[in-house]
């Protein structure tokens, strides 16, 4: 059997025999001639067949087609400038209905996102949705390539855990034989363990789970977390330097491979950011947004989403940059494992990275001195006994280290200018969504 030609590869071919396969997008069943538009994952092409007197098997098959059916066609490619769709058409010789579709699609372009997610497999057939996942593939591949070129080891840490990985908030528990397990909220413990194990530089791209009941455009109960952790650092500055270089590599690859398609499909330009990204201490960022007329509701907390939007707008205007590192968060709003400033225990060696108005990442230098770590856990009211397995990692000599976690869907959403991570997550999971 000769393989089919992806539709986007037809245009440069010479006129002659081709095999194409795809979903029937439109049918124009006229008296003298029948037209179909066929779409595969790469593009769309017009198919044509003059109708024989008195019909035959093929013309009857075309008349009986339902939209969305998957067909394979052998035919003759012909270049013809008058054909609106790409200046080519394929004259049908044979047509095989491979998979027949029910006649009415349950969704259309203007269907609500919730209903589209019910029918995600149909929703994903749209070419711009296909593009989202090609962009994501390119982005992840570029990150991996950068890490490999810089001697990182990839780890796959377990997602079934003996203790919470972040805090007791947003924790999924599952029965585990005679005991209970927790779904990993992050690979935090195990990426730090890799530093004690002497791996030096590691990364992981894997699932993370949060029992977060919120319905915002940026939260899911399961998401893909992009994580890295490195040893021998002086401060969070070393982590930020790695983080920004990595993003430049990822965005360069996306721009080179998909820049034009992204602009055509989503109307946004992919910008490769300049390094270093702007860095603003959180306290200063709060002051800046306050001076710009927005007072963060709780003075002792992080910037809220509106605050993030505002600081991002400020940075965009002042530095022409889509990214900003907000640094030196107060220790009362950071986890116990963040290292605190040597001269000011109220501040941490940590940062959040905001991209086009939304937090995409948290990073920090970690506290590697076990007695200090234990003390900080106690101060936060944590159960130190529950943390014992984690604390052991630090009792046998561990280098200074730090790293970050970054939500993959958030990056892709912001990169493409889309309104919700639901649009860019292959199968979204939220408080009300366990299907399909
Ligand atoms: P944090 O909890 O800030 O940090 O998470 C890191 C990043 O993960 C993404 N994220 C989410 N994405 C979708 N839905 C959610 N419910 C969700 N929660 C978090 C965000 C966020 O910035 N262990 C630390 C990271 C580290 O210090 O290495 C952590 O998990 O993009």
TrEMBL record:
L-aspartate binds at residues 166, 210, 362, 366. It is found in: Cytoplasm. It catalyses: tRNA(Asp) + L-aspartate + ATP = L-aspartyl-tRNA(Asp) + AMP + diphosphate. Residues 188-191 are annotated as: Aspartate. InterPro entries: Aa-tRNA-synt_II, aa-tRNA-synth_II, aa-tRNA-synth_II/BPL/LPL, Asp-tRNA_synthase_2, Asp/Asn-tRNA-synth_IIb, NA-bd_OB-fold, NA-bd_OB_tRNA. Its EC number is 6.1.1.12. ATP binds at residues 359, 407-410. It is an enzyme of class 6 (ligase). Keywords: Aminoacyl-tRNA synthetase, ATP-binding, Cytoplasm, Ligase, Nucleotide-binding, Protein biosynthesis. GO terms for molecular function: ligase activity. Residues 133-436 form the Aminoacyl-transfer RNA synthetases class-II family profile domain. Homodimer. Belongs to the class-II aminoacyl-tRNA synthetase family. Type 2 subfamily. Catalyzes the attachment of L-aspartate to tRNA(Asp) in a two-step reaction: L-aspartate is first activated by ATP to form Asp-AMP and then transferred to the acceptor end of tRNA(Asp). This is Aspartate--tRNA ligase. The lineage of its organism: Bacteria, Bacillati, Actinomycetota, Actinomycetes, Micrococcales.
């Amino acid at each position: 059997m000769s393989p089919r030609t992806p539709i986007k590869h037809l245009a440069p071919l010479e006129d002659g025999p081709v095999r194409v396969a795809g979903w029937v997008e439109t049918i124009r069943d006229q008296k003298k001639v029948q037209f179909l538009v066929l779409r595969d994952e790469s593009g769309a092409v017009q198919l044509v067949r003059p109708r024989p007197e008195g019909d035959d098997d093929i013309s009857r098959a075309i008349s009986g087609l339902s939209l969305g059916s998957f067909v394979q066609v052998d035919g003759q490619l012909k270049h013809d400038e008058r054909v609106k769709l790409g200046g080519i058409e394929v004259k049908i010789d044979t047509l095989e209905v491979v998979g027949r579709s029910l006649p009415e699609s349950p969704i259309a372009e203007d269907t609500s996102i919730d209903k589209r997610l019910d029918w995600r497999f149909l929703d994903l057939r749209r070419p711009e949705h296909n593009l989202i996942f090609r962009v994501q593939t390119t982005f992840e591949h570029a990150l991996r390539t950068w890490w490999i070129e810089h001697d990182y080891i990839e780890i796959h840490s377990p997602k079934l855990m003996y203790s919470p990985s972040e805090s007791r908030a947003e924790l999924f528990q599952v029965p585990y034989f005679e005991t209970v397990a927790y779904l990993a909220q992050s690979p935090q413990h195990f990426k730090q363990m890799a530093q004690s194990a002497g791996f030096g530089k590691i990364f992981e791209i894997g699932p993370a789970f949060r029992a977060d009941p919120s319905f915002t455009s940026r939260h899911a109960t399961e998401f893909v977390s992009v994580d890295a952790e490195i040893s021998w650092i002086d401060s969070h500055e070393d982590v930020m330097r790695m983080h920004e270089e990595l993003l430049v590599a990822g965005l360069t690859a996306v721009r080179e491979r998909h820049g034009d398609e992204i602009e055509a499909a989503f109307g946004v330009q992919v910008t490769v950011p300049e390094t270093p990204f702007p860095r603003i201490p959180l306290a200063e960022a709060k002051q800046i947004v306050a001076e710009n007329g927005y007072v963060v509701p709780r003075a002792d907390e992080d910037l809220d989403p509106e605050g993030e939007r505002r600081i991002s707008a400020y940075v965009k205007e002042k530095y022409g940059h889509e990214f900003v590192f907000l640094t030196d968060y107060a220790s009362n709003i950071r986890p116990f494992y963040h290292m605190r400033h040597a001269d000011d225990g109220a501040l941490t060696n940590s940062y959040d990275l905001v991209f086009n108005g939304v937090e995409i990442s948290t990073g920090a230098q970690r506290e590697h001195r076990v007695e200090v770590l234990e003390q900080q856990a106690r101060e936060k009211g944590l159960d130190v006994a529950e943390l014992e397995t984690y604390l052991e990692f630090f009792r046998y000599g561990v280098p200074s280290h730090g790293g970050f976690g970054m939500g993959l869907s958030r990056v892709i959403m912001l990169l493409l200018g889309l309104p919700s991570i639901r649009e860019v997550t292959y199968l979204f999971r939220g408080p009300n969504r366990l299907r399909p």
